[in-house]
TrEMBL record:
It comes from Lysobacter capsici AZ78. Residues 219-574 form the Phosphoenolpyruvate carboxykinase C-terminal P-loop domain. Monomer. Keywords: Cytoplasm, Decarboxylase, Gluconeogenesis, GTP-binding, Lyase, Manganese, Metal-binding, Nucleotide-binding. This is Phosphoenolpyruvate carboxykinase [GTP]. The gene is pckG. Its cofactor is Mn(2+). Catalyzes the conversion of oxaloacetate (OAA) to phosphoenolpyruvate (PEP), the rate-limiting step in the metabolic pathway that produces glucose from lactate and other precursors derived from the citric acid cycle. Mn(2+) binds at K203, H223, D274. GTP binds at A246, C247, G248, K249, T250, N251, R364, R395, F488, G489, D490, N491. InterPro entries: PEP_carboxykin_GTP_CS, PEP_carboxykinase_C, PEP_carboxykinase_GTP, PEP_carboxykinase_GTP_C, PEP_carboxykinase_GTP_N, PEP_carboxykinase_N. Belongs to the phosphoenolpyruvate carboxykinase [GTP] family. The active site is at C247.
Amino acid sequence: MVALNEWVAQVATLTRPDKIQWCDGSDAEHQALIAQMLADGTLESLNEATHPGSYLHRSHPDDVARVEHLTFVCTNEREDAGPNNHWMAPHEAHAKMDALFEGCMRGRTMYVIPYCMGPIDSPLARCGVEITDSPYVVANMRVMTRMGAPALARIEREGSFVRGLHSIGELDPERRFIMHFPDELAIKSFGSGYGGNALLGKKCHALRIASHQARNEGWLAEHMLIVGIENPQGETHYVAAAFPSACGKTNLAMLIPPEGYRQAGWKVWTVGDDICWMRPGADGRLYAINPEAGYFGVAPGTSTKSNPNALASIQTNTIFTNVGVTADNQPWWEGLDNGQTPVTDWRGNDYDASKGPAAHPNSRFTVSAKQCPSYSPEAENPAGVPISAIVFGGRRASLVPLVFEARDWTHGVLVGAAMGSETTAAATGAVGVMRRDPMAMKPFCGYNFADYFAHWLSFDDAGAKLPKIFHVNWFRKGDDGKFLWPGFGDNLRVIEWMIGRVKGEAGATQTPIGYLPKATDLNLDGVSLNEEAHAKLFGFDHAGWSAEFDSIGEYLGEYGPRMPQALHDEQQRIAAALKG
Ligand SMILES: Nc1nc2c(ncn2[C@@H]2O[C@H](COP(=O)(O)OP(=O)(O)OP(=O)(O)O)[C@@H](O)[C@H]2O)c(=O)[nH]1
Ligand SMILES: O=C([O-])CC(=O)C(=O)O
Ligand SMILES: [Mn+2]
C-alpha cells in the first residue's frame, strides 16, 4: 500500500534505524523477540514451573505511569481541544516532535506493527499502524490488539488507518511528550516506554483519536468495561461502566458472583475491561465492542478474594511490569494472598518494607483476554453486544451514595459530566486528590468536553432505545476511614438492582439527584452493614448535595458558551430542587 510504505520510508529517513522489521504477529517472531529481550535484560524470566511463558519487565523508575501534563491534543483551534486538554498548534507540535525523533533510532531496529482494534471482521473495528523502536511495545501490542497479517490486509483494503509513531528516546522525563493530531489521524509519542504512553493502540488511538472519529461518525469511544450478567433464567444483560483509572473496571468486568448468587445460577461474562466502542444498531439500541484483545491490568490488590478470574488468567503467558519477585522467582505484589513473600522489589533491589512497596502501585500485567475464565464468547461478535445499562462511578470517600439512577438520558449525561474521583497511581502526580473526571474521560477525550457532552446528548433522538444510566460509588468511607461497602463480588447485588430497574421490577425512591434504592430494594442476604453504613450507602445528604451542585454548576461554566444549554438547565433545575 503506497501511503503506508511511503510513511514508513519517511519515518526511517527521519529516525535512521539500523533495521526495519515488519511485524506479522507470528509465534516465531514473538519467540525471537523474547529471546532478544532476555539477552539484553529488557525482560527477566520468571519461575517456568509456576508461571510458564511469563516474563518480568522493570521499567525506568521515572517511567511508571501515564503523564497527563505531557499529553497534548493538537487541533488547529485551541478551543477544539478544550480546557480539558493541553494544546499545541499542529505545526509547532510536529516541529518539536520531529526534532526529538531525528536520528533517534540509530543503532536500533524500527518495528512496524499493523493492528486492528476490535474483531477483525467487525464494521465497528478500526485499524492503525504503530512504528516503534521498543521490542517490549511489540510484545505488548501483540497481546493487546489483533496484530499482524490480517490487520495489514484490512488496512490495504480500507486505505485509512491511524499512524502512531513511538520511540523510547532516552527515557528522559525532560524529553517526553505524547502528541495527538486528530485531524490527521496521527500520534507522536516520545520518551516513555510505559503502557498508556507507548502502546499507542490503547489510550492514544482507541480513546483520544477514536473519540474524535466517533464524534464525526456518530458513535462513542469510551473508557468503559463491558460485562454480561446472566441471570438464573439464562437471560443476559450487558452493562458498560466508566470508572477512572485504577477505580475498579477490571474487577467489575471479571466479577465472581457471591455464594448465594452462584448457587442460584448467576453467571458473569467479561467482554472488555477498559475500552468500549458503541453505536446505535438498526433496532435503536446501543451495540458495543471491546476494541482490545487483552488486559493491561493493575497488579496490586489482585487476589483470590478480589479477582480470582484475573489471577487465573495470569498464571501463564503474561508480561508483568514493575512487580516484586519471590525467592523462587514468582511475581509478587501487595495484596497477593498466595502465602509467598517478596525478596526483590520492582526496582530490582532487595526488598525492604521500610523503603516502600515491593510492587509499584501502578504495576501491571499484560495478558490475552482469551485466558480469562469468564471471557465472553460474544466478545468476538462483530456486531457487538446490546447495552442495557451505562454506569458511571468514581472514588468518593464522602457524600455519594452506593447507587442511584438518572431520570432520563439528559440527566444521565449530566451525571456523567459531573463525575468526580480521587486521583490514583495510574498517572504521575499526587494520589487521592478529588477532581472532576467526566465519564472517566478527563485524560482521554480527544476534543472539547462541551462538544463531547453535546455529542452524548445527540443520541437521544427519535427511535433510540437508550440504556438507563446509573451512578455507583464502591469507595464511600466511614468515620474510621474504612470502606463501608464490601465491594468486588458483592457489587453484583447493585447490578441486579439496576437490571431490575431496566425491567421495571425493582423499587426506588425519587430524590432531586435521581432514584435511590432503599436498602430493602437490594438483595443484601449475607452482607452485614452497620447503622453508619446503611445511613451513608443508602441515605441522601440534602445539604451536601446542594453544595455539590453549586460546584458542578461552576465546573460546567468553565467551558463557556460551548457547554450545551440542556446541561445547564438540568443542573439548575436540580440545584433549585435541592434549595427548595
Ligand atoms: N474498595 C473497593 N476497591 C475496589 C473495588 N473494585 C476494585 N477496587 C480497587 O481498585 C483498584 C484497581 O482497580 P482496577 O479494576 O484494576 O482498575 P481499572 O478501573 O480497570 O483501571 P485502569 O486499568 O487503570 O483503567 C484496586 O486497588 C482494587 O482493589 C471495590 O469494589 N471496592
Ligand atoms: O493507560 C494505561 O496505562 C492503563 C490504563 O488503563 C489507565 O491508566 O487508565
Ligand atoms: Mn484505563
